[in-house]
Design a protein that fits this description.
Blueprint lengths: L16 H21 L14 H12 L7 E5 L16 E6 L5 E5 L2 H16 L25 E4 L6 E2 L2 H6 L6 H13 L4 E2 L5 H8 L1
Parallel strand pairs: 1-3, 5-6
Antiparallel strand pairs: 2-3, 2-4
Helix pairs in contact: 2-3
């Protein structure tokens, strides 16, 4: 018996021409959105946003103690040291001695002072902040909080984002407030200042394509 030669035809049905023609539009949709909504849609001003009080709440939850007795947090327009010449961002934080013997953290926005506090806790106190399924946070409250050396750190870029399509649709749909609070606390301590929220994106695709 002679076997027929292998077929080179695709096992999938042919793609409708209309879909093929729309594919470049799908790729260009972010560019079209920028033109449609203007520069303000992507020109987000991070500096000055947030509040020390909110970051104190984050730290108090994570440390399970009143962070106002530990940290002196402030939002400032600039840091004590000028940015490096090759810096792509003006967002930064200062760490140093604060008022009333506290640890001073000054930053250009809420996420900067949150990350600055986390930087201090990691470097000077040996703490770590992780997912619960990977061991959770490593919190070690010292008898006396170490006094930090004066340090200024700038962001590499203005935007530090998290989330993606899969996580947002498959996991966060089942989160309650406790899970969201823990997630956002973790993000703040990691310096995240932009969350990608895909709510309603599928509906936009359905209507457009």
């Amino acid at each position: 018996r002679i076997c027929p030669p292998p077929s080179h035809e695709s096992p999938f049905p042919p793609t409708p021409r209309s879909i093929v023609m729309l594919f470049p539009l799908f790729l260009l949709s972010p560019v079209l959105a920028v033109h449609a909504f203007g520069k303000s849609a992507i020109d987000y001003q991070f500096s000055g946003r947030g509040s020390p009080s909110a970051i104190h709440d984050v730290l108090s939850r994570v440390l399970d103690t009143d962070s106002r007795e530990i940290f002196d947090l402030n939002i400032t327009g600039s840091c004590s040291e000028a940015p490096p010449k090759d810096s792509r961002s003006r967002l930064c934080f200062d760490i140093g001695p604060g008022r009333e013997g506290k640890v001073g953290i000054r930053g250009t926005s809420g996420p900067e002072i949150a990350y600055g506090a986390a930087h201090y806790l990691r470097k000077y106190c040996g703490m770590g902040f992780f997912w619960n399924r990977t061991g959770g946070n490593n919190i070690l409250i010292p008898q006396q909080w170490p006094s930090p050396n004066a340090t200024t750190i700038y962001r590499a870029t203005d935007v530090s984002y998290f989330m993606n399509v899969v996580t947002f649709s498959y996991t966060f749909a089942f989160y309650d407030f406790e899970h969201w609070e823990m997630m956002l606390d973790w993000a703040a301590l990691g310096g995240v200042n932009l969350a990608l929220a895909y709510t309603g994106q599928e509906e936009v695709y359905r209507k457009v394509f």
